[in-house]
Write a structure and sequence with these properties.
Length: 60
């Protein structure tokens, strides 16, 4: 690639990813911040497992 200083290393990471051999970190990180933050609903679950398995809470 024209603008990448370490293209050889980057291309090896992509090859490892497509061969399902990339185990240390994702090759891509995307952030899309919102203009206005939406607060999450309050959780009254006793455990994290209950919170994640509560379908209605997840939908809200």
């Amino acid at each position: 690639m024209r603008y990448c200083e370490n293209w050889e290393h980057i291309s090896q990471r992509y090859l490892a990813y497509w061969a399902r051999e990339n185990h240390d970190r994702p090759i891509l990180n995307i952030r899309a911040p919102r203009d206005k933050r939406v607060p999450l609903p309050a959780s009254h679950h006793a455990t994290l497992e209950q919170r994640w398995l509560d379908t209605q809470y997840q939908l809200d």
